[in-house]
Design a protein that fits this description.
The chain is of the alpha+beta class. It contains 27 helices and 13 strands. The protein starts with a helix and ends with a helix.
């Protein structure tokens, strides 16, 4: 169905983006497709609404009058969905879904628009968790969400939502609602898990703005007309529930009092919070989609979520104590004036812990002073292991990589990056997909190639050399040769002796990753040239040790085997047991002449050269 429908589109989006035949997720009436811009490869999400989903299942429409009425209802739905997409263009905020391409009509009467890349709607993730729990826990079945890697391979996405991700996400929703209520003067009016999108960084974004409009106390100028509560609260049985206001997440201000107040969103937010911990993950209100059902729920205290009934969450799914005792009672309350505002919500003690504070600092990182950033980077390794691995990969790592444009922070950022890569189960993927492109941009870009000496850049380069083992373990041979080896060669050719020394010391980690041709034709010539040109005796010795390794010798403690240490023949053989890396021709034509050209008589250099000669003799 989706494949044929997409082929019929003739639009700017379908012309400029590669859209797969099957959606990756849904959000209300929208099908979400993982797309890529054709000329840049940038990942986006394309939202598509198919008008045929509005058609009733039965064939009879009950007469011409009913047909005309249904047609008007369909037109109103399409117009509301168009307004939902258009609102994203006006409401620009980090916690509101970012629009990339404006809404377009399709030839079949539907709609489509493109946004920042999203993983799924919160509703889809919660539904996925419910399915996993029914199948016997998270390990009971694989996720049905699949993502394609850069090399074309496909893997299942990890979708488990942990405590920190919930705290972080709710904090982001609070920021978004503060923006809507105070800056834009709007009430969302239909805040449900379907209206929350999770992007590639794990950030929660507000969407689903079809019922959004000015609230009663709003003073900000807006082109949006107030919604008619009478119209949107009365469900039309001819239309799918996905295009109508969800009464299970609605506030009594709307349904019982007919008041269009901003605090109604805070009641809905409270219901959404409960759904995150409920089992199954649904609203504690079950209204059947009717006003009468809603009134019936509120007619009895036993069916209204409250602290006394654990907010109707099963005892097997305990709510966090601060959430149950401090936050929810000030959201799920009948009187609007007693509810927290969106700003007060963000200041709740529920969010008062070191990990959430770290995430908040990361969100505000670009605005922090250089000293604040430096202190943050120094302290981050101490709490790194406390973060969920998914948050490290999706949130912390990208935030740090974005800050690598600040050269003063290059070394401390890279120190933290390598710590993350080492402890993340997905470190290999994160390193090749996210870290390596950034290293290439910072150290190998043409604009930096011929630049004058940069102490901050050299400090960052030293961190890479110190962590070369991690780089080698997490980078396949081809990528290592193309992206990491040039950085190593940059250090080998540096006028800073400390960098050259550190670079030569990485050979035991580097050589196993490289093939013979690369070592012979790319790495060895750089080492040989540096050895011949340097005036530093220490670098001469280190260079000879490196050449000895290339000829099959060893580095480290055994490098000082000079026949004066009492080693027997068997022990000598074990100290030079590695096979030669360079071929016989290269040794004879390149290495031996290099050794013969040594002019210094300094004992350390001569002993190191003697060791190479002995290794060549073996």
């Amino acid at each position: 169905m989706f494949s044929n429908a997409l082929k019929s589109f003739n639009s700017n989006i379908s012309a400029n983006y590669t859209i797969p035949p099957q959606p990756s997720s849904t959000s209300g009436p929208w099908r979400i497709f993982d797309a890529k811009r054709k000329n840049t490869g940038k990942a986006v999400s394309v939202f598509v609404f198919y008008k045929k989903t509005l058609e009733p299942q039965g064939s009879g429409l009950g007469g011409r009058g009913n047909a005309a009425s249904l047609k008007r209802a369909h037109e109103e739905v399409v117009e509301r969905l168009r307004r939902e997409a258009s609102s994203l263009a006006r409401l620009r905020h980090p916690s509101v879904l970012e629009l990339v391409e404006p809404v377009e009509d399709t030839r079949s009467g539907g709609l489509m628009f493109a946004t920042e890349h999203v993983t799924a709607s919160l509703a889809s993730l919660l539904h996925e968790e419910d399915e996993q729990e029914r199948a016997g826990g998270v390990g009971g079945r694989g996720s049905r969400y699949v993502v394609e890697e850069q090399d074309g391979t496909r893997r299942r996405r990890e979708l488990e939502i942990d405590k920190l991700e919930i705290q972080k996400g709710l904090l982001q929703l609070g920021k978004g609602l503060e923006f809507l209520h105070e800056s834009a003067g709007l009430v969302h009016a239909n805040l449900t898990p379907e209206a929350v999108l999770v992007n590639a960084k794990g950030d929660w974004k507000i969407a689903g703005l079809g019922f959004c409009g000015p609230h009663a106390s709003g003073t900000a100028a807006t082109s949006l007309a107030p919604i008619s509560l009478h119209e949107v609260l009365n469900h039309d049985p001819r239309l799918p529930r996905s295009v109508q206001l969800n009464l299970d997440y609605s506030s009594p201000d709307f349904v019982l009092d007919n008041q269009l107040v901003a605090s109604a969103d805070m009641f809905s937010l409270g219901l959404l919070v409960i759904a995150l911990y409920n089992s199954p993950h649904s609203s504690p209100l079950s209204t059947g989609g009717s006003i009468s059902g809603y009134k019936r729920v509120f007619a009895s205290s036993s069916t209204v979520p409250s602290q006394s009934n654990n907010f109707l969450v099963p005892s097997s799914q305990p709510l966090p104590s601060r959430l149950a005792s401090e936050l929810l009672p000030r959201l799920i309350t009948r009187r609007a004036a007693q509810r927290l505002t969106a700003r007060e919500f963000q200041e709740a003690s529920y969010f008062d812990n070191i990990l959430v504070s770290t995430i908040r600092f990361l969100d505000a990182l670009p605005a922090k002073t250089a000293n604040e950033k430096a202190q943050f980077m120094r302290g981050l390794p101490r709490i790194m292991s406390q973060f969920p691995r998914s948050v490290l990969e999706k949130k912390v790592l990208p935030a740090l990589l974005d800050e690598m444009k600040d050269r003063e922070l290059l070394a401390p950022i890279l120190t933290n990056v390598f710590v993350m890569v080492k402890i993340m189960p997905t470190g290999k993927r994160a390193f090749t997909e996210k870290v390596v492109p950034k290293l290439r941009e910072v150290f190998l870009a043409k604009s930096n190639a011929g630049s004058e000496r940069d102490a901050s850049r050299e400090a960052g380069l030293m961190v890479i050399l110190e962590n070369m083992q991690i780089a080698a373990e997490n980078c396949p041979g081809k990528e290592f040769r193309e992206d990491i080896l040039p950085i190593l060669e940059l250090a080998l050719e540096s006028p800073t002796y400390g960098l050259v020394d550190a670079a030569l010391g990485t050979l035991p980690h580097v050589l196993p990753v490289l093939d013979f041709s690369t070592i012979k034709n790319e790495l060895f010539p750089v080492i040989a040239t540096g050895f011949a040109k340097t005036s530093s005796l220490a670098i001469k010795v280190r260079g000879l040790e490196a050449i000895c390794v290339l000829c099959g010798g060893t580095s480290g403690a055994n490098a000082n085997n000079d026949d004066l240490n009492g080693l027997g023949d068997q022990e000598k053989k074990s100290s030079t047991s590695s096979s030669a890396i360079l071929d016989k021709f290269t040794v004879q034509e390149k290495v031996v002449p290099l050794l013969k050209g040594i002019k210094t008589k300094e004992p350390g250099v001569m002993m190191a050269a003697l060791k190479v000669f002995k290794q060549v003799g073996h």
